[in-house]
Design brief:
Two copies of one chain form a homodimer. With about 210 residues, chain A is an alpha/beta fold. Chain A has a single domain, classed as Rossmann fold (3-Layer(aba) Sandwich). Chain A has eight helices and seven strands. Chain A has a seven-stranded parallel beta sheet, sandwiched between helices. The radius of gyration of chain A is 16 Å and the shape is globular. The first copy, chain A, starts with 5 loop residues before the first helix and ends with a helix. In chain A, about 50% of the residues are buried. The model of chain A has no long low-confidence stretch (mean pLDDT about 95). At the A-B interface, helix 5 of A face helix 5 of B. The structure holds guanosine-5'-triphosphate (2 copies), magnesium ion (2 copies) and zinc ion (2 copies). One guanosine-5'-triphosphate (GTP) sits at the interface of chains B and A.
């Protein structure tokens, strides 16, 4: 019988709270600057998920990401982690009680930009979303495998920049499948919206399966 | 009297070892995919530092970066950190004993891609080099301040992509100066070599001042 760490215990509490409130929560993890906030802005602009999107923003410092989400009409709270490099279930628990969550809505938890430590912490989400920007190089799934092992879906973002890069999109996707054969991969651009329709359809069916 | 942590103790040992060997060591920190390895490749290609460059590569997994450096004629060893998100002085100590370091040479320690945790660990280097890619957004110095506070120099890399980005180069530099007024900032492209001459001149004078 594995002794649940304090974090796992709280994560389980968060998960029960979210299930009772009928809120579908995901935990978004990437390197700094891969486009997590831009992707959430795009989801708010497109409004294709049919329900309200609430956002918990995690950053060492500033409320810049929360302000960007609010500017797009989203309800967002900001967690500043200071020297901590990842969100934990305790921080998220506090933030959950600050949001007027509605049944059937979505909760996006944008983690601190870091491909390593956030992958190990359960926050109470349904699953983790990994984001890799094609400006970072196709080798990232192999070099930072925890990101891929712990995610259900990988978004390869900023594909509008492909004409200007030496990035091998095929290789990046197959490297991810090598690390986690079950992962689903989408190539998208948060800037132009390319590829997002397929991702929205996938999220809606994943939500249907979970709730 | 601050009690030196075990890491600081070992870092001090590394620093003495490097000073005795007359090797000028720097610790390069960035987000994953900012171009640390590409910058080292560029330094090997340009050969403008006048002395041999030894490299310690830090990654969760793979020896891909070490192999890239060796392919450019550099002497490199690879440290795989597994689940650890940063290099520490103990890991570097082991690697130091594997390199045939020469007097007056350079040692570049490429840390694990992570803007947070590596900034807190002294490895025995002369100073830290921060790298931010202009594909990551100009807000990074404000959102990940530890990276800037702990660095002596900031390289804003990939400026060859500026025509295709909404990146504000001026703002990024001034945000960094706001966080750390003493930091020196260079705008460079590891791909085209633009801006590297000024950086080489700065490194040579910094090395002269330290040794
Ligand atoms: N060309 C292009 N740029 C993008 C895209 N998505 C994001 N960006 C840019 O990438 C930079 C970083 O985007 P953010 O949304 O702030 O990234 P993030 O992952 O939220 O960053 P942190 O929260 O700081 O870790 C900004 O300059 C964005 O404009 C995209 O699809 N295409
Ligand atoms: N256009 C352009 N691309 C660059 C430049 N520097 C690096 N890249 C590209 O950016 C991607 C990542 O470069 P790397 O050198 O592997 O970055 P890194 O910081 O060493 O990455 P990790 O060690 O995995 O954290 C690769 O696709 C490079 O080709 C640059 O100056 N301009
Ligand atoms: Mg963000
Ligand atoms: Mg590298
Ligand atoms: Zn960490
Ligand atoms: Zn020793």
């Amino acid at each position: 019988q594995r002794i649940l760490s304090r974090n796992d215990h709280l994560a389980q509490h968060n998960r029960e709270l979210l299930q009772k409130a009928q809120v579908f929560a995901t935990n978004w993890i990437s390197a700094p600057g891969s486009g997590k906030t831009r992707l959430i802005e795009r989801m708010l602009e497109d409004n294709r998920l049919g329900q309200e999107i609430f956002v918990i923003e995690g950053d060492q410092e500033t409320s810049r990401d929360r302000d960007r989400i609010r500017a797009k009409g989203g309800q967002a709270v900001q967690i500043n982690t200071g020297s901590a490099c990842h969100l934990d279930a305790h921080m998220v628990h506090e933030a959950l009680h600050q949001l007027p969550l509605k049944p059937k809505s979505f909760l996006v938890i944008e983690n601190v930009g870091n491909m390593v430590c956030p992958t190990a912490f359960d926050l109470g989400e349904a699953f983790k979303v990994a984001v890799i920007s094609c400006t970072e190089g196709e080798d990232k799934p192999l070099k930072y495998p925890d990101l891929i092992t712990n995610a259900k879906v990988l978004l390869i973002n900023k594909i509008d920049l492909l004409p200007h890069l030496d990035f091998d999109l095929e290789a990046c996707g197959s490297f991810a499948k090598r690390i986690n054969p079950a992962i689903t991969v989408f190539a998208v651009s948060a800037k132009t919206g390319e590829g997002m329709e397929a991702f929205y359809a996938w999220v809606l069916s994943a939500k249907g399966a979970e709730t």
